[in-house]
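Q: Could you fold this chain for me?
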Amino acid sequence: MSEGKSGATPLEGDGKRILLILGTPKKESLCHALAEAYSLGARSKGHVVRQLRLGEMQFDPILREGYEQSQSLEPDLLEAQRLIHWAEHLVFVYPVWWGGIPALLKGFFDRVFLPGFAFKYRNRSQLWDKLLSGRSADLLVTMDTPRWYFRWIYGAPAHRQMVRTILGFCGIRTRRLSEFAPVRPSNEEQRQSWLRKAEALGKKA
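A: Sure. Below is the predicted structure, expressed as structure tokens.
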């Protein structure tokens, strides 16, 4: 878990409260650079940005017994829930692996977005209450697959999972989904342009 490179907690003023969740287990990657660029842009406009780096957090990503039995939340996950409640805007930065989100990010959702926190089923009804309504989200996604191929051949499964069946299910409205792809054949010039784009997105937060 991190507040950014400086380690300092920014002062809260009139800016928006932003929680950036870095959803890769890697210690260094393009996702890290995109996250820092977005944070830099957002802070330049007076927004307060805090970060959760899942690869640095200590928690069991496996929901052992589903929702039938309670599984105690580790301190890092309790802090994550606190920050999600604090935030007005969420930013998820992650790679697409095997057409979906990384297992660590999926495990984070399994453990943190619990009934009573993120949603609540209504008695004797197929409907549910979206307990995280009122929040918006930006998604910054890296892929090796070309964007057109991921969308038209694969059907963009990771995007539908995030936008509809996870965030939308809990009431979080995805405002922008930005793809940075294909990463593997990209050169330094291309990556620098992506970082500039991420910074610009942060300024629009």
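A (continued): The domain at 17-203 is CATH 3.40.50.360 (Rossmann fold).
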